[in-house]
Design the sequence.
């Protein structure tokens, strides 16, 4: 009997420590500011991408299927995976490129390019 | 939840004594209703619990191991099909207080949002199937609490960011319905509830799952075992994580159970990387179809404590 009471007491203490917490939403990228004044097209963005990303993200073995070997493939990937691209390349906790995040002004510009609908 | 716990404290004293009286009357006529024994050979099947409990004063030392992906981009020959990596390791001591009640403590590496996990568990066998089908199924309840001792992540949006100690805790409650069909086949159905005190954005604190498992005896010492869990994750949560490049899969395992005297040795393949229910039910992100399954094993060694006086009774 004593054992069952001890276990019941432990169960009560355990249930008393239950909480329901959810982490805040991750930052999905900087809010674009002054995008209207920015003139940017996919060639400008791809110039950065080809210099920083295509050494890994190229060909059929590209991580996560993110093949940036041509401008068309890069635009197609961003169009289909905008959220994850913002999170991993443009956000405050971006982990790509692995050698270090793109500088803030570049990230802002690419974010504007996405907001404008990926203009050619 | 807090109200329920206070109710348990206030009601427990009277309920416990009555409940024990009621249960004991069910087995008074033991000569007419012989319990079915050996529905499973071990307290675990592959990933989850079976209906079996340890005998009184029996100590079970358990080691479980899950290796890395056998196939896919992290498997193949370069990692000896996963043998170079370990996704989770659990070492446990479990003890039978009575023939129907066992408790245990364990330490697991952890595989998922939380790592470096300590676990406390209790398991109680409520009903035993009888040979004459007076009671057609066995019913066992299992519960555990885990605490992660990992360092808190600085990023407040991470599920492993801990503001309070309780943020490190998770719980599982499970009912295991089991039936042995003849000498060769045993099946279980396990409604399961997983609660995690703190989760990531759009994840679920509370999750129900339904588990099912089976054991087919191949010879005196060898059996085929399989186990599957279906977690009821909300569609909005699935959609959000899919947009982040994360997909969840249902845990599925299959293997062989080998009994050698005091040892029960289970060799298995699972897609889940974690060993504890608290993780493999809500957080399995590997798929059998993408080669993300792994070899694993469970080893159990039982010791009888406090001499043999109980055996002589």
Sequence:
């Amino acid at each position: 009997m004593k054992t069952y009471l001890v276990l019941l007491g432990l169960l009560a203490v355990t249930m008393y420590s239950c909480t329901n917490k959810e982490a805040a939403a991750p930052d999905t990228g900087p809010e674009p500011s002054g995008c209207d004044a920015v003139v940017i097209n996919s060639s400008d963005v791809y110039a950065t991408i080809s210099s920083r990303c295509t050494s890994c993200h190229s060909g059929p073995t590209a991580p996560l299927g993110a093949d940036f070997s041509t401008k068309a493939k890069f635009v197609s990937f961003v169009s289909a995976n905008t959220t994850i691209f913002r999170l991993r390349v443009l956000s405050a906790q971006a982990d790509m490129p692995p050698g270090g995040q793109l500088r803030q002004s570049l990230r802002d510009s690419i974010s504007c390019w996405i907001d404008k609908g990926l203009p050619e | 939840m807090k109200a329920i716990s206070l109710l348990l404290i206030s009601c427990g004293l009277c309920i416990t004594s009555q409940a024990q009286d009621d249960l004991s009357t069910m087995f008074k006529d033991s000569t007419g209703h012989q319990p079915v024994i050996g529905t499973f050979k071990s307290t675990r099947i592959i990933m989850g619990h079976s209906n079996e409990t340890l005998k009184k004063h029996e100590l079970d030392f358990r080691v479980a191991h899950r290796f890395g992906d056998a196939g896919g981009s992290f498997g193949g020959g370069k990692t000896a099909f996963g043998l170079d990596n370990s996704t989770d390791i659990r070492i446990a001591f479990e003890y039978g207080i009575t023939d129907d009640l066992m408790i245990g403590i364990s330490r697991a590496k952890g595989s998922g949002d939380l790592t470096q996990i300590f676990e406390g568990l209790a398991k109680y066998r409520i009903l035993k199937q009888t040979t004459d089908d007076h009671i057609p199924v066995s019913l066992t309840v299992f519960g555990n609490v885990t605490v992660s001792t990992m360092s808190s992540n600085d990023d407040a949006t991470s599920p492993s960011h801990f503001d309070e100690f309780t943020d490190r805790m998770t719980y599982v409650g499970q009912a295991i319905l089991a039936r042995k069909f003849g000498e060769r086949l045993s099946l279980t159905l396990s409604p399961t509830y997983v609660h995690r005190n703190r989760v990531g954005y759009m994840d679920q604190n509370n999750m129900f799952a339904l588990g099912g498992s089976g054991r087919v005896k191949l010879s005196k010492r060898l059996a085929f075992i399989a186990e599957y869990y279906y977690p009821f994750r909300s569609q909005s949560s699935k959609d959000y994580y899919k947009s982040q490049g994360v997909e969840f899969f249902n845990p599925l395992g299959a293997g062989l159970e080998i009994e050698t005297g005091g040892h029960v040795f289970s060799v298995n393949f699972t897609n889940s990387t974690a060993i504890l229910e608290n993780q493999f039910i809500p957080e399995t992100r590997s798929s059998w179809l993408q080669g993300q399954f792994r070899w694993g094993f469970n080893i159990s060694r039982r010791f009888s404590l406090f001499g043999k006086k109980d055996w002589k009774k």
User: Anything to note?
Assistant: Chain A has a mean pLDDT of 84.
